[in-house]
Amino acid sequence: MSAPYRTALELAAAGIPVLPLRAGKLPVGNCPACADNACGGRPSMKAPGPCTCPAPCHGWAAATTDTGVITSPAWATAWQSAAAVAYHPGGGGLTVVDLDDDAAITWARASLPRTVVVATTRGQHWLYRGTMPSANAARPGVDIKSRMAYARWRAPSPPCTLSGLLARAADLPDAVRALVVKKPAPVRPVVAATVPAGGGGPCRHRTPAYLERGIAMAEQRITAARSAVHATVYQTFLAVLSTHGRCGCLTDGHVARLFAAAQAKGESARHCADAWDNARARLGV
Question: What pLDDT was estimated at residue 201?
């Protein structure tokens, strides 16, 4: 039994979702059905796409506390070659303040309440009880890893039990939460998106009102998303294209409305274009 495997079982027993971590701090890869992000997942593999796999298979979303999964034959090879254990802090009710250099550590010591501190290769991880959105470069040298993120597990020094470590963690302070609070970004100009050409046959929608209602419903679905915005955008694009993508009814104006709704929820123009292209590729339009 490898050390990462034993650590994974210990963390899972404490309610912290885990996954194998390959060399280079890379998480487990996509399953064969989702290779090359065919299901719409982000290329970084840090966010799951709307795949129909039996279980999430993308990066942090694969983390689990289910010992049946951790000990399964499907993960056996991964544990044999695992360089370390990754965990999903948000899934375990935690937030990691990742301090990458001495300047960031100095800032944390002056600005944040003391908590469990774990040494890393370049700096320190400060662990707090509570969850929040994750963010890279929340400030110079500082990343926040909580929801929808993974972190490498590092044993505390001096050694202590996991329960003891978690008991010593301080509550997540407002000073950390404030690092990711931003004013709503203005809607950026829509990048060029190619509308698929019509199939050459008669339009089955009969009236423009049908298309208008479909676009309006798609805008509402995106606007109403409270979580998994990227997946919701992709699924909505997929639904619109599956219904309207082959008859030539869609115009650049319709696409612009969908992109604008997605950007108002925080999606970048590039992610909108990627999701649109992925949906088109999925449908072959």
Answer: 52
